[in-house]
Write a structure and sequence with these properties.
Blueprint (H helix, E strand, L loop, with lengths): L3 E5 L2 H11 L3 E5 L5 E2 L7 E4 L2 E4 L2 E2 L4 H13 L3 E3 L5 H13 L7 E3 L7 H9 L6 H28 L8 H19 L4 E11 L7 E9 L11 H10 L4 E14 L7 H12 L3 H13 L1 E2 L5 E2 L14 H14 L35 H4 L5 H17 L4 E13 L5 E13 L25 E13 L8 H10 L8 H10 L3 E4 L2 E4 L1 H13 L1 H4 L1 H15 L5 H22 L10 E6 L6 E7 L2 E6 L8 E3 L3 H8 L16 E6 L2 E6 L8 E3 L1 E5 L6 E6 L7 E5 L8 E2 L13 E3 L4 E4 L5 E3 L11
Parallel strand pairs: 1-2, 1-7, 7-8
Antiparallel strand pairs: 3-6, 4-5, 9-10, 9-16, 10-15, 11-14, 11-16, 12-13, 14-15, 17-18, 19-20, 20-21, 21-22, 23-24, 24-25, 26-27, 27-28, 28-29, 30-31, 31-32
Helix pairs in contact: 3-5, 5-17, 5-18, 6-14, 6-15, 8-12, 8-13, 9-12
Length: 756
């Protein structure tokens, strides 16, 4: 009997789905996208009749397509079960065309969690492919391709070759550049804080508290102390003053739990709490969604679909969560009725759910032995957020105390102290939002009570510029302004980092000179593309296409006509950016002529070059302070001879790390790996230096016996605090020494420049 065919994206998802469906079905994976626009040309013909994309099968998917074509021909019914979003709909459509699947036997099934009930319900209610979703995804892909292919030549011509621009990534870059300009233009203003250090009469240590200056008689609003003289004047007025409690206000306050995660909030919290990048967060979440092997011997999906902007939760899941809370924490912790949260995004697809566990009874601790460290921490975060969202509010007893101080004749000052004590933890039993939720207690005070003064604390401070964007902050900004969608946040950030438009320093994005030049040029000549509101409007129009409210061709045409004119204008009239404006300063000098060295960007990444060019053409590989610190931990003294010509071998640098090269080059091109003086802990072979692919690849040590031995070590720039030898990573924020028995927290990076 022929089996029905189910097509999904990944092998892991295929195994999980096949397990639930039984032996009447066979599940196969498309391995993601199977067709796309061609890589080496725009692939979109544009004429008076519209936009005509030319799709081709991806070269590495030809074997997959051949297998799917054969399997679909043998099946009675083909179920297209790709992800439940626009991209998933488009993948199903592309699979149908590439594998030549008969439309009469094809059915679309959608499920937001990989569980027995969800899959069965989906297969009981198949539908046709949604042309509106497909057209919306086509419109996005064509729009992004047109923008990229038309803008990139402008950058090649006016900035440098090899650059790229994108519709969403360019706006994200502009946000980072605009923030940097705000910081550069910021002028700090001086101000002073004045706190009265007070205590109950004879109250001892427990009766002590501080109150901040809140009002000055005769002045409107909160007093602003702008300089030291004014602060000294207030301090003089209050010398010997009596402090008396004017009022005590007590009231119960409540704090509500946060809604379950959506894509953006999950990425933000995972960045803040777990130090995971958005890209890594989505990769781990994908694993949890597609299914992992548990005790029952088969793969099980642990969370619902992780690309969503809806906070809706299925009624069955709300009931199950309430039941779990009552069983585990008691009736008083469960909300009286299921909490339903309003989705902020106007374009949210309400058919989707928030990110939640497929079963809250599958607790993180019960799964710990089946999950990797990252999987466990992310699942724990998702699980706790969902459970907390259905618990009662946290209750606090909040106290506000006003204290009057009669200073110099006619001068009256009011100080205020606030405190709160947790009365009922509610959702905080499971999920603490911020550390500021901790108690801030005040002693028991009453009206007209006199207080002891222990003096004033006057501190000079300065206003601070707005902070640079962290990954979480940039995702929040993109979401709030309607730029991009759940599936685009992670790749957008990864792209501007990979293009070297921004660098990451102390977890914050700092635009490079290259990024600033690109943003400046695009903003000047393509104000629509770089405009936040315009980009958000395009996203709204794509949503309207998905909902069947607009045709996709007119949307593209309205954008393309003025855009194409702007491209031609920029190619003719935009000024070329001088090359030296892209150079980054450094604190190094040339070994040949002692002129300053600068950091340049080339085809293969960054390198150091002498400012004396063309008289001095000295260059050297660029190293981050971290890479330099790691290199200095390993001696470069080499006493080896070439086994081909017997000349001395010397340490050389390449994109993939250091290596030994014959000094007889170019007559002798013999090379050897650079051994770092460490033995492999698995097979006793030598460890050699390697570097990850890409412009920002990190240095690591790999076994010379690879691929027979795949052991790797990640060296740290800090030396061992006990013996000064090499440290390697031993997990998140942990390190171990390769020489002595040190194992513990990563030491502070005193030897590494700030900002790394």
């Amino acid at each position: 009997m022929p089996k029905d065919l189910v097509i999904v994206e990944s092998p892991a998802k295929a195994r999980t789905v096949e397990r639930y469906l039984g032996n009447k079905y066979i599940a196969k994976a498309s391995m993601g996208h199977v067709r796309d626009l061609p890589r080496k040309e725009m692939g979109v013909a544009i004429d008076d009749n519209g936009f005509h994309p030319s799709y081709s099968t991806l070269p590495d998917k030809r074997k997959v397509i051949s297998e799917l074509r054969k399997a679909s021909a043998e099946a009675d019914t083909v179920y297209l079960a790709t992800d439940p979003d626009r991209e998933g709909e488009a993948i199903s459509w592309h699979v149908m065309h590439a594998a030549k699947i008969d439309a009469a036997k094809a059915k679309r099934v959608v499920f937001h969690e990989i569980t027995q009930d969800a899959i069965q319900k989906a297969f009981d209610n198949p539908r046709e492919l949604d042309s509106h979703l497909i057209n919306a995804q086509q419109a996005r892909r064509i729009l992004d391709r047109v923008v990229g292919y038309r803008l990139s030549p402008v950058l090649w011509s006016k900035v440098k070759r090899g650059l790229s621009a994108g519709r969403v990534q360019s706006v994200a870059l502009r946000l980072a550049v605009d923030r940097e300009q705000e910081i550069a233009a910021f002028v700090p203003e001086e101000y002073w804080t004045i706190d009265a250090l007070l205590s109950k009469l004879g109250g001892g240590e427990e009766g002590r508290f501080s109150a901040g200056l809140h009002a000055i008689a005769g002045r409107k609003g909160r007093p602003k102390v702008s300089n030291g003289d004014e602060a000294a004047g207030i301090e003089g007025d209050l010398k010997g003053a009596e402090f008396t409690v004017q009022s005590v206000e007590r009231k119960e306050t409540r704090r509500r739990p946060m809604p379950p995660f959506i894509t953006s909030t999950l990425q933000q919290e995972a960045s803040r709490r777990l130090r995971l990048t958005a890209q890594r967060t989505m990769s781990v979440a994908q694993q949890l969604y597609e299914g992992l092997d548990l005790e029952d011997g088969g793969p099980t999906g642990l969370i619902t679909y992780m690309r969503t902007d809806s906070t809706q939760v299925a009624s069955a899941a709300l009931r199950e969560t309430g039941e779990y809370i009552r069983q585990t924490y008691g009736e008083k912790y469960a909300s009286d009725a299921p909490r339903r949260y309003r989705t902020k995004s106007k374009s949210a697809q309400e058919a989707h759910e928030a990110i939640r566990p497929t079963s809250v009874f599958r607790t993180p601790d019960s799964l710990r032995s089946h999950l990797s460290g990252e999987q466990y921490r992310l699942y724990d975060l998702i699980w706790r957020r969902m459970v907390a969202s259905q618990m009662k509010d946290a209750l606090y007893d909040a106290t506000a105390v006003n204290v009057i101080a009669n200073g110099a004749p006619g001068k009256k000052y009011t100080f205020r102290a606030t405190g709160s004590v947790l009365k009922f933890p509610g959702y905080r039993t499971v999920y603490v939002v911020t550390q500021s939720d901790t108690d801030r207690t005040l002693p028991e005070l009453s009206k007209d009570e006199r207080l002891d003064s222990r003096g004033l604390k006057c501190e000079q401070k300065f206003t601070e510029p707005p902070p640079r964007y962290s990954e979480a902050m940039l995702i929040r900004a993109l979401e709030e302004q309607g730029i991009g969608r759940p599936s685009t946040y992670a790749p957008t950030i990864a792209t501007i980092l990979a293009r070297d438009y921004v660098s990451k320093q102390q977890g914050r994005f700092v635009p490079t000179k290259l990024g600033i030049a690109v943003s400046k040029l695009l903003t000047a000549h393509f104000p629509d593309v770089m405009d936040v509101n315009f980009t958000a409007k395009v996203e709204e129009q794509l949503d309207e296409i998905a909902n069947g409210e607009r045709e996709w061709t007119p949307v593209l045409q309205d954008f393309y006509t003025p855009f194409d004119e702007a491209v031609e204008e920029a190619l003719k009239n935009a000024e070329r950016v001088p090359r030296n404006e892209l150079d980054e300063e450094s604190d190094e000098v040339c070994e040949k002529c002692e002129r300053p060295m600068v950091i340049k960007s080339g085809r293969f990444g960054k390198f150091m070059a002498c400012t004396g060019y063309p008289e001095c053409k000295s260059t050297r590989p660029y190293e981050t302070p971290e890479e330099r610190a790691i290199r200095e931990l390993v001696s470069e003294d080499v006493d080896e001879l070439c086994d081909k010509c017997e000349k001395r071998m010397a340490v050389k640098n390449s994109q993939r790390g250091r290596f030994l090269g014959c000094t007889g080059y170019p007559d002798c091109k013999n090379t050897r790996p650079f051994r770092v003086g460490v033995k492999c802990e698995r097979c006793e072979s030598d460890m050699i230096e390697r570097k990850q692919k890409g412009r920002n690849g990190r240095v690591f040590y790999g076994c010379i016996s690879y691929p027979d031995c795949k052991n790797v070590l990640n060296p740290l720039p800090q030396p061992c605090p006990d013996c000064g030898s090499m440290l390697v990573s031993a997990g998140r924020s942990k390190a171990r020494c390769l020489t002595c028995e040190y194992q513990g927290a990563v030491p502070k990076a005193e030897a590494v420049e700030a900002g790394v």
